[in-house]
Specification:
The chain is an alpha+beta fold and about 150 residues long. It has three helices and eight strands, in the order βαβββαβαβββ.
Length: about 150
């Protein structure tokens, strides 16, 4: 079973201060954050362990895709780990898929063992995972949601 990546939904950039980063994008590129949301993940899996964490997300439209600015707020998360290791920068490339498990199974069938570093859900409706080591730098985010379409 072979699968391909759908069109890019967004590029996720981890920042220490979302308001500062948003102001930089508006000043430099004349693009404003269109929506901001704080999300809490009470039962996410991070490197195989259950964690509780939260982050602030701001989205900037850039035409065919978006830039997602991410500021960690609380708890241990991929974002706190990224900031500690790399500082601010590109964290992931995001794609909406019909089934995360289908994509993981397809990777396994090619001999790849996907490393899921983060597995969480937004309001028990939108599941997303971060896969390490598949994009020559950034993490790959797969988003599965009936609300987003596939």
């Amino acid at each position: 079973m072979s699968v391909s990546l759908p069109p890019l939904l967004h590029v996720g950039i981890v920042v220490a201060d979302l308001d500062r980063a948003a102001a930089d994008y508006e000043r430099r590129w004349s693009v404003a954050v269109e929506r901001v949301m704080d999300l809490h993940f009470p039962t996410a899996r991070f490197h195989g362990h259950e964690v509780s964490c939260s982050a602030r997300y701001g989205f900037l439209s850039t035409g065919a895709s978006e830039i997602e600015l991410i500021q960690p707020l609380s708890g241990r998360s991929p974002y706190t780990e990224f900031l500690e290791t790399n500082g601010e920068g590109v964290h992931h490339l995001a794609y909406v898929v019909g089934s995360i498990d289908h994509h993981l199974d397809a990777l396994r069938e090619t001999g790849e063992e996907p490393r899921v570093s983060f597995d969480a859900a937004i309001a028990d409706q939108t599941r997303f995972v971060y896969l390490d080591g598949l994009a020559h730098g950034p993490v790959v985010e797969l988003i599965e949601s009936d609300l987003l379409g596939s």
